Amino acid sequence: MSLAAAMTLGLRPGIFYRGAKLCCINLLLTYQGGCAGNCAYCGLQRQRQGDFNQKSFIRVEWPTFPLDEIIARSADRTAAIDRICISMVTHGRAVDDTLAVAESLKPLEKFVSVLMAPTVIDKEAIGGLKDAGVEIGSVAIDAATEELFAKFRGQGVKGPHKWERYWQCLGEAVEVFGRGKAGCHLIVGLGENEAEMAGTIQRVVDLGANVHLFSFYPEEGSALAGRSPCDAGQFRRMQLASYLIQQGFTSADRISFDGSGRVTDFGVAGEEVAIVIESGIPFMTSGCPGKDKLVACTRPFGDGPPGDIRSYPFTPNMEDIAKIRLEMGDI
What we know:
Layout: H1 3-8, E1 24-28, H2 67-76, E2 83-87, H3 94-105, E3 111-116, H4 123-131, E4 136-142, H5 146-152, H6 163-177, E5 182-188, H7 194-207, E6 210-215, H8 232-246, E7 256-257, E8 263-265, H9 270-279, H10 318-328
Parallel strand pairs: 1-2, 2-3, 3-4, 4-5, 5-6
Antiparallel strand pairs: 7-8
C-alpha cells in the first residue's frame, strides 16, 4: 500500500503536512516477478534495478502487508476511510488476484475502485469486478498523444502496452460501470502541448469518464529520472481547463491557444474564470469520490513535494490561490 495509506492505518509512523487527510486506502498488487510493463516514467518499470517490492512508486515507499491485516486495520478505522482502491500491475495473475481482493473487501462495506491493467484484462473480467462489488474502474492512459504513449509505454521502451487497447478498455469501463463511474489518469508534462492535453481531456469526457490529472515529477532510477518536472504554469492551466471542461463550462474547441499550443483563453467569461480560480477546487487532487461526493483519493503530495504542491490534498487557502495565480501566468 502507499506510504500515505500505511500512515492512515497506523502501520507506519508520520503526520501529513498541513493536516492533509487521506480517505482512500491505495493498494497495489505486488509479485516477485514484478510488472511486465516498462513505462519510462514509472518507478516499477521492469528495467529499473532492484527487487520489485523494494522499488519506490510515485517517489515513496510502498510497504507490503498481509491482506488480512489491511482489512482488520481498515475495519478499526472505518470512520476515516471512504474508499479502497486496488491498483493492478501487468502480470498474468493480476486479474484473478484483483477479483479475490475485491471479494475480500466486501465485509468492510466501502466504495471500491480498481485501476485496471488493460493489457491483461478484458470486458468479461471487468464485468466480474463489478459483480465483486467494485464501483469504479479506471485506466491510466497517462500520455496525451499516441506518439508519446508509444515512446514511453509501448515500442519505444519495448513495453507491451497498446494505445488502442487502453482507450478500448476505458470505453469498456464506461459500458460496464456506467457514465461517470470510470476514470482516466493523465500525466501533464510528458512532452505534449496544452492543446493536445485539452483535446485528450475532452475525448475522455465525451466518452463518459472522469479525468484524474497528475503533474509529471521524475522518479529516481526511472528512465526519465533526469527529466525536469512539469512546468507549474502548464499544470495549473490544464487543471483549470480540465475542471471547466468536466463541469460543462467550456470545451476543447472553445479554448484558444497560441502558436506553441499554450492556452490564451479558456472560452469562458473572465469574471466567471476568476470565481472558479478563487474557489481553489480545480487545483485540488482529482480522484474518486467519497461518501460526501468530495475526493476521497487525495494522494497527499503524490505529484509534488510539500514545498511545491501541485495537486492540493485540501482546499487551497488565500496564500495558495495567490501562488497559483502567479504560476498560471497571464491568460
